[in-house]
Write a structure and sequence with these properties.
single chain; about 325 residues; alpha+beta; Deoxyribonuclease I, Chain A; 2 domains; six-stranded mixed β-sheet; 11 helices; 12 strands; about 20% strand; elongated
């Protein structure tokens, strides 16, 4: 009996401390206190870190632990406040059956992915009018030119042997405008039944320095560099470009930025998040279950942003990703 009492007390103290740590982390982040380890926990790992709270709540009820129950309630409130945008269905912003609509998709192929036929089938399955591809390899670009010219006659493919490759493929005419290193993207204008829409495919850098990782100690060094990559400057350059280009705009890509990162707020101040317009839930796109990193994605880093008289009426995340470490993200956009 004494051993059971000691175990129950240890669980209560440990669980209470864990919940208190979650609440403190949310409070510190809200105040702008973001050391690298807290930024990673807040921006990327929070859904996983909050998951044990449900089990702790059941434990508190079963063993009538008041202190733990109070801590669980505080953590649950912190969770609800942190993820309220994901927990509440959006209000309709466009007619469900608009006269004109455009289906657009973003797909990070993963530069090391060599499953060419599977990737082509994955792209076809989306039935999108416009597809933005990141980490475009020479092999996939050649296959798209060879096998998909009839389906996507308008192509702008800039493949690479590293993760810099980008591509736009479209059923509608594309006017090439700019390949920009400042925001690491391609900008074009798509002609859709007389409407002219700027489309931008971007791939900002990952938020930490990943080069030179050869030993376990290098992983910690890379994580400690979180937030110091060129990503912030690239997103700021994208926002600056958008302020200079008039008219409706669609920005697609792998932003390497979670929707809890402060950079998300900079983007949301200029664009509409198509997922938040049309869906609810976490919408996580990374890592894909096919990557073998985790059995499910935990963070949303792939986006389709809209500006002007454009509104998303539906969206979906497709994690049958053709061997990529990213899920695809697809949105149906109502046109004016």
């Amino acid at each position: 009996m004494r051993r059971q009492t000691m175990l129950a007390r240890a669980l209560s103290v440990g669980g209470t401390a864990y919940c208190a740590a979650l609440v403190a982390a949310e409070a510190l982040s809200a105040l702008g206190v973001r050391p690298w380890w807290l930024a990673i926990a807040h921006d990327v790992l929070a859904p996983i870190l909050f998951a044990p709270v449900a089990a702790l709540g059941l434990l508190a009820l079963a063993l009538r632990m008041r202190a733990l129950g109070a801590a669980v309630a505080a953590a649950a409130l912190a969770f609800a406040l942190a993820f309220q945008a994901a927990l509440v269905p959006p209000s309709p912003t466009a007619p469900t059956a608009p006269a004109r609509q455009l289906r657009v998709a973003t797909y990070n192929q993963l530069i090391a992915n060599t499953q060419i036929d599977t990737m082509l089938a994955t792209i076809r399955r989306q039935d999108a009018d416009l597809v933005a591809i990141q980490e475009l390899s020479h092999d996939l670009a050649a296959a798209i030119q060879r096998d998909m010219a009839g389906e996507y006659p308008y192509q702008w493919l800039v493949p690479s042997y590293n993760a810099d490759g980008l591509g736009l493929i479209s059923r509608y005419p594309l006017d090439r405008q700019e390949q920009a290193s400042a925001y690491r993207g391609l900008r074009a204008v798509i002609h859709v039944d007389g409407a002219l829409i700027t489309v931008v495919n971007v791939h900002p850098h990952i938020p930490f320095a990943a080069s030179g990782i050869r030993r376990p100690s290098d992983v910690l060094r890379a994580l400690a560099s979180y937030g110091t990559s060129p990503r912030q400057g690239e997103i700021e350059a994208l926002v600056a470009m958008a302020s200079q280009v008039p008219g409706p705009m669609i920005v697609l890509g792998d932003f390497n930025t979670s929707d809890r990162d402060p950079l998300y707020a900079q983007l949301a101040a200029v664009f509409h998040d198509s997922y938040r317009q049309s869906s609810w839930g976490f919408g996580a796109t990374f890592p894909s279950p096919q990557s073998d990193m985790l059995p499910f994605p935990i963070v949303r880093i792939d986006y389709i942003w809209l500006r002007g008289p454009l509104a998303a009426i539906a969206s979906q995340v497709d994690c049958d990703s053709g061997g990529s470490d990213h899920c695809l993200y697809v949105a149906d956009v109502a046109l004016p």
